[in-house]
């Protein structure tokens, strides 16, 4: 191949052999489609565990507009670069290279994404991810949290037309947003 | 044993041998504690699949106030009856005994729990559960949806002090409720 494929950069036309190989490896039942279980068995986080069901469903769902529950090679190709981008972001903030992001690292990451959350909220996010020790967030949990926060932000902004940082909302609508943004 | 243990009824004092046997079976690593993976490997839904990670984390979390990620036999005993209660509710609404609840069955279940949702919202709940066919909800998904809706209802009511069915809420608070009520 000529040149170097940029980190997290989408491929320019066609499916690279690298992606093709990955796809074939992940598509265990040779259906030509990848579902979340297949994706899960291919992805391991810095804690030596497979990515969570939630993370895999979320990521498949992002490239599966018809909600079939699985994606073909073209969508996989996009997903592949998407995951690599997140891995890049994660590594930037995981300064001690521990494979997990800690409280201060997460606070910094979210701040640089433009969010101003209270220390309690950051603690809450970590606690929710690391049920046992309340200390670190793995890369798959980081992806889930970032995607959910982004989705909530968009949903919130749609309602917050005057940009007051406050919205008035009914119960079903509230439920709908909350359940729609989480997987 | 004397008498018959009522369906979904909490045991009166002590741990029954039935619960003890279950606990020993589920606690594969003999740690004296059950985590969500152990629970998952013990529970199968009417579709012949294991309960989802989400359902198992949610249920462990309900009986794990210290957020250790696992529960002992006393909490397991409560969880055991709790799951049986949900199975009972599910079977009541699964009129055709298909092992899955369909749109009209779910609408009826939620209505009898006191919720008035639009048909679109019911469709959305089913779609979210059955990514492939948009038709049925399994028992573990049903438990997750009901628990989430209950939690959201409580969180919403706390804010909706005048019972207008509408609340005004800021972004972090909104995120906090949404992420807290979902697992």
UniProtKB/TrEMBL annotation, chains A, B:
The keyword Cytoplasm applies. Its main location: cytoplasm. Keywords: Calcium, Cytoplasm, Metal-binding, Repeat. InterPro entries: EF-hand-dom_pair, EF_Hand_1_Ca_BS, EF_hand_dom, Peflin/Sorcin_CaBP. One of its GO terms (molecular function) is calcium-dependent protein binding. Residues 18-46, 55-83, 85-113, 151-181 form the EF-hand domain. One of its GO terms (cellular component) is cytoplasm. It is found in: Cytoplasm. Gene3D superfamilies: EF-hand. This is EF-hand domain-containing protein. It comes from Brassicogethes aeneus.
